[in-house]
Amino acid sequence: MYQVGNLVKELSDKHGRERESLMPILQGIVQKHNYLTDEAMVEVARELDISAAEVYGTASFYTFLDTQLKGKYVIRVCKTITCSMKGKGDIIHTLEDMLKIKVGETTADNQFSLVETNCIGWCHKAPAILINEMPYTELTPEKVTEIIKDYMQK
Amino acid sequence: MENKGLNKVDLIFEKIDNREVLNKAFKMSREEIIQEVLESGLKGRGGAGFPTGLKWKYTAAEKSPDKYVVCNADEGEPGTFKDREILERVSNKVHGGMVIAGKAIGAKKGIVYLRGEYRYLLPKLMIELEAFHKMIREIGFDFSIEYRMGSGAYICGEESALFESIEGKRGEPRNKPPYPTVSGVFEKPTSINNVETLVTAMMIVNHGSKNFTQYGTKDSRGSKVFSISGDTPTPGIFELELGMTVLQFVNEFGDGDTKAVQVGGASGFCVPRKKFAETIIGFEGVPTGGSMKLFNSSRSMYNVLHNYLDFFAEESCGQCTPCRVGCQQLLKGVEKVKKGEAKSTYLTELMKLADTMKIAAKCGLGQSVGNAFKSIVGNFKEEIIY
Description:
The structure holds 2 protein chains of 2 kinds. By secondary structure, chain A is α+β, with helices and mostly antiparallel strands. Helix content of chain A is 45%, strand content 12%.
């Protein structure tokens, strides 16, 4: 759980308080905290003067606007056909072993979340993952181990 | 049916002087620009293939002080990655295409809707956009471009869902008509074009439509960027002339053991080996936004189909029943047949369901699920059953 503090106000000052400002504001919160708490969504609703149900209804439509707790680093493993043909399974096993969690879970220290996602546009360099915004491609178990070790030391 | 050989073309990434091209466009009249694009025969490069010149013509005809050019950069079709590469390498040409579209239709505002998965590109794009804005102001254009981000929803590549998303709502497709040219984003007349379409249009203005029509066929003019992946020694991005057969394509990009090519991604068509020679890649054969996935004989087509159906079941927006329930039932259905819980004749029932979805679904997503389903089940029935 995080405290929204002034973030919603800052984002609304930047993007406006119209209905079309909703996505950029929610995206701004997710960029900082990786998921949306109920409190954050209620705060956004208050700031834009719309119902909290509208905010939740919009947020829950989009995969990247998570309304469930997510760790500091969200690892999204592409599961669409080319990545799945080119060794996605090995990447998942490596990550599960390293982080001691299953797909869909978050580590106890809230550092990492592991999820599967649909095509992320790196089919020519499969298998690919996103960690927050950054793509990592042409992965092998060795390569992904190195990448995660780096993140663990951040 | 014309048949062209496999020709590599250099248009989209060709080095040009952007300022020079935009100066030229600035001196042209709206009618001249639209006429040039109409004569080129350019059809939308996102996959749907609507004639770009007509889209501009219709939007130009609308009487409204507020019009929009929207660049569809929500590239989500499995197997396509060309728009990311275009934005990464030649964003000025994308923005340039938007300015030219703006001049053609009489719009002062442009919005790029970029998929959330490509957010990492944003810092660089913002720097390039700032310099671009400065350049077009010097030329004399009254046009500005802003970026809006998606957040992980395949359906937002559908034009009206994309508008809803820009407006801050759930990405649920609208009823048509009205079409975007009449009532698009913020209910204003809008020309929405794919990233590659905008660059192609800019190059048509630069080189003239005659230069473009020398490539391709009667139904599929010009060249386009293909995203090539799967069982191939040379995955990546290639710009090729339209009108080649799948066989010519496979001879160039296959690994010597290609048994099927999925043309146009999950919503496209599966072409089996026995139809390689007779199938043309283009609007007269298999249309495509450029997604080309090669599968060799080591691959199970059941896995390919299952993967696509799983994708659709997840990405269906859920507002219309034929698509929401249809996707789930097709997925459960092939699983049942595979496990032996349903007879193989059950596939015939599922084929009918796919047909129903084509007729009854509200938007292109639900209407095209049947493409992959019918072409994979139809050509690889034994792999689905056993």
